[in-house]
Amino acid sequence: MKIRGFENIPGDFKRLIIISNHASLLDGLIIWAYLDLPLKIIVNRGRAQEWFLRPFMQNEYTVPIDTMNPYALKGIIEKVDHGMPLLIFPEGRITRTGNLMRVYEGTGFVAYMTGAEILPVYLDNTYSTIFSRKKKGKKIFAPITMTIGKVREPLSLEHIEHKKRKREAADRIYQMLCDMYYEVHNEPSTLGRELVRICKKNGSRTAYKDLTGNEVSYKKALRGAFVLGRYFSKFTEKNIGVLLPNLTLTALVFMGLQIFKKVAVFLNYSTGPGALIHAMDLADLNTIVTSRQFLDRIKLTPSLFKGRRIVFVEDLKGVLGIKEKIMGLIESIFSFSYTRLGPDEPKETAVILFTSGSEGLPKGVCLSHENIISNIHQALARIDIGEDDYFLSALPIFHSFGLTIGTIMPLFAGAKTFLYVSPLHYRAIPEIIYDEGCTLLMGTNTFLNGYGRKAHPYDLHTIRYVYCGAEALSDAVFEKYAKTFGIRVMSGYGATECAPILTMNSALEHEYGTVGKILSGIEYKLVPTEGIDSKNGTVGRLFVKGKNVMKGYLKNEKANQKFLVEDEGWYDTGDIVEVTAEGFLKIVGRLKRFSKISGEMISLTAVEEALAGLFGERKETVVMAVEDERKGEKLVLVTNYRDAELKTIRERLREKGFSDLACPRDIIYMKEIPKLGTGKVDYVKLKEFLIV
Question: How far is 188 from 341, CA to CA, in rounded Å?
Fold first, then answer.
């Protein structure tokens, strides 16, 4: 046992409720033994009467109650009112996944009605013991850490509508437990150090698999990472460029670079040669890791890298022989020196990614070890994924969503990942999900729409969760997955600069039409914007701050001056959002994608979303603003549907409650609307076309 936060145990209190996650039969006993408070433990009467528990429940420390009887809470409230500290497991039962489960309203009701202070406690790793409901891998002796949080003030809900108070109280208690999870797991570290620890912990379990049939266990992945990392460590430069598709080898190259403290610079090949050269120059890249076969497929010539060292992965087999492999094996076993942590290492740059460039020249984003690790734990605090899950990751690794969530986070969860080379193979990906039995799928709305069109209804029968990010989830895609596959697609929102997730819906907290709630450890504020109704402070330009927010932009003093100095470390997302009464975020639109027409600010994104699917699921609609002599600007609709009519568009927008000012004045047909590698519309190229 390791105990943290003894100093937070209150010595004096009038009313106190202790809340904790619940992962094993040991939990109540551990908290009772170490808190040294005269507390009573609430237990489910039905569970207490089971034959193997009944002998242990005949004591003065437990209070069995019927959780299905609302009147049972009355007696509990009286006990708290009389000064008895009470331990409640808000989930009401032992978790089956190791993650947080549903919080019952009864806990919130007791906390609110008594006005008690709340002491949150988090038990880490009791799920690994033989007293849990874990299916396999239980241990008789498992290291357990109990973290005692700071006492929270009594819940204040007077401003909440009376009938919603129980639910609001339960939501706040759930948030406290999420915050505790994040605080407990998010200790200072580096990606290299964490990857060594994770691979040693998971041993022979499968980590990665890809289309080539290359499948590696965690143990083998660590060995391969040491072999590759040792090879790249001989290059004197800190930054190493990576231009590879989603393959097991790509993941191992990344792991090796992290272990040997190199900076992985992922190059976005979808933005074209010009942007690629700009990125290489900006990052001072002298060494690029790539593949001849891959360069041929994406139609890039080696001459593009003139003056730089190119390491072709096809040549590595001839370079890395028996000696290097034996050395890698030894280092992977005796890796103690690679787990040491310097005082400032967590804040050093681990990865450089480039923004999509959908509205201008791509910027280099410097993400530290702390940024990425923090964001992973922020996400894991909300979603119940674990070692039984199998990710299908097709989003390119140069994209922050594909890197952090598709490649690194599964390792932290002890899960398995199938890395697929392209998200555009709409027929192949559902087939792989079916063959492999994947349980989690991530993608943009564009890609999910493609999979939904091509998949057989049974292809996705093993999928537990589908997450959509990078662009707005359309009604058509949500309904397609719900009606055809019986799956609820959940939206999230983020930015490369935030490593990337800021908000997400989950199975426990979901509101359709929103992008979820702000994650633990992230502060936010809304700044009023001229011309946009703030709706009593619930709408504004979103600024965020947290450990997941980038170090800064690469060689961009002007942007960093604003971010770090003028805004005091608050990252300006550039998005206008609305926060609902329940705390969910709705994206109103990107500030750069607002147009001022006759004095009124029109969100081009909102108009696009209203027109989505109007001409069929395969037909796209993009709204752009162009110069107009009379009104300064006018809206035009760009679509790949030849028979689009303005009358039909006006009727749809009026049905959705838009004013006539939001109606496009012209229609431009385009057979193929330019896209980025992430599936987003390339607004820069589209604007250039419209100007010409």
Answer: 9
Greatest Cα pair distance in the chain: 85
Per-residue model confidence (pLDDT) at position 603: 80
In 445-545, where does DSSP find H-type helix? 445-454, 475-480
**What does the pLDDT read at residue 590?**
78
d(CA 112, CA 167): 11
* pLDDT at res. 56: 62
In the residue annotation, 22 being an active-site residue is answered as yes
Burial of 211 by CB count in 10 Å (0-12 exposed, 13-18 middle, 19+ buried)? middle
Q: What is the pLDDT of residue 647?
A: 87
Whole-angstrom distance, CA of residue 99 vs CA of residue 120: 16
Hunting for tokens 């994406």 — which residue is that?
298
- Cα–Cα distance, 313 to 608 (Å, whole number): 42
Sign of the alpha-carbon dihedral angle for 603, 608, 611, 612: negative
Tell me the pLDDT of the chain averaged across its residues: 88
Rounded mean pLDDT, 606-619: 81
Q: What pLDDT is recorded for position 574?
A: 86
Dist CA 542 CA 534 (whole Å) = 12
State how far the Cα of 662 lies from the Cα of 366, in Å rounded to an integer: 38
Residue 232 phi/psi, 5-degree rounding, is -75, -15
Q: What is the phi/psi pair of residue 200, to 5°?
A: -65, -40
Find out whether the peptide bond into 500 is cis, omega within 30 degrees of 0.
yes
R_g of the chain computed on alpha carbons: 27
Closest by Cα among 489, 451, 492 to 470: 492
Asked whether the whole model's pTM tops 0.85, one would answer: yes
What type of residue is 553? Y
Per-residue model confidence (pLDDT) at position 519:
96
CA distance 626 to 671: 20
Taking each helix axis from N to C terminus, what angle separates 218-232 and 191-202, rounded to the nearest 10 degrees?
150
CA distance 328 to 314: 19
For the chain, domains (ranges, CATH) are: 2-185 (3.40.1130.10), 598-691 (3.30.300.30)
Token pair recorded at residue 580 = 């609902």
Give the contacts of 582 (CB within 8 A, at least 6 positions apart): 171, 511
**Beta strands in 45-150, from DSSP E residues, in sequence order:** 62-65, 86-88, 117-124, 145-148
Q: How confident is the model at residue 358 (pLDDT cuts 50, 70, 90)?
A: low
Residue 175 vs residues 168, 170, 227, 402: alpha-carbon distances, Å: 10, 9, 42, 27
What pLDDT, in 10s, does the model give residues 24-52? Answer: 988 988 998 899 888 878 776 555 566 66
Give φ, ψ of 423 to 5 degrees: -80, -5
Contact 140, 134 (CB under 8 A): no
Q: Which of 257, 223, 440, 211 is nearest to 329 (CA)?
A: 223
- What is the DSSP-derived secondary structure letter of residue 483? I
C-beta of residue 468 within 8 angstroms of C-beta of residue 491: yes
Nearest to 505 by CA among 395, 584, 413, 582: 584
Please state, in angstroms and rounded to a whole number, the distance separating the CA atoms of residues 509 and 523.
19
